[in-house]
Amino acid sequence: MDRPTGLRPTVAVLGVGPGDAPSEIGAAAELAELRFTSDRDELPSVLPGADVLFTWGPGNGWVAGGWGSVDRLRWIQSASDGVDRLLFPELVHSDVVVTNARGVFEGPIAEWVLGAILAFETGLRTSILDTAAGTWNDERTRGSVAGRHLLVVGPGPIGRSTATLARAFGMSVSAVGRAARPDPVFGDVLGPDDLHDALAVADHVLNALPLAGGTERYFDADVFTAMRTGACFYNVGRGATVDQDALTDALERGQLGGAALDVFEDEPLPRAAPLWSLPNVIVSPHVCGDVDGWREAVVDIFVDNLSRFVRGAPLRNLVDTSAGFGVG
Known about the structure:
- By secondary structure, the chain is an alpha/beta fold.
- It has 11 helices and 15 strands.
């Protein structure tokens, strides 16, 4: 990134106060002037003069509303992997560089997905429910993870980490992406035209799609109908990539054998949502990547990138803002 070296930049940290951020952010204060705000109403006094934004949680959604106060912004670092809440047309069409927290969350999310697959295949989830009900049921059998087939829709870092872990458990793996292409992890990534054929032979289907152009309600009634009867569905991408009513219907009529969901279009998931009461559903409150120490790891990425920014060196974890997800 072209930037005059030797100047001390100003960083606005949005969505967290100085007492709420991990102590590791103190290293950033050695490189830049830091302004914190946990109140979006303070943006008009925080954004002017800021060279950099570091957005936490709700701060991702504040940038669009405060864009009129931006006057010399060069770079935004997101504390999350997904950037759909951050992007808006004026930012996409600007020269502002966006980076994300790739490298922090994909390993923990992959473990969560494999844990959910194991819970369904081994019958562990049923045992947990039986324990709560005080039921002794020794008339049932269980499946085996080894030999099952996992289809990853969205073969980015999360999909790749999950595929690698799934293979270690003896599963076979395939993937559908934006275009057909050779791939070192999957062998070959299939294109969108092959989605229904791929769904028909998968025992487990992982949605790791970002919310970007063309992915809203990507998993609709036709997609769930194309899935193998009894297959299980997992969503760690974005809630809005799934037609939740169609998913609920597929679960209720037995088209799907189960679903483990960490993201939803409305969060928290409303208590009236049928997904809460379906016996073959695992509801997780958007925490599958929040491994112990994630906040500190995100700050480490930011501090490293800030050091690069000050030196005029290339930043890591670049986001293609027009596509809506990370690259490289």
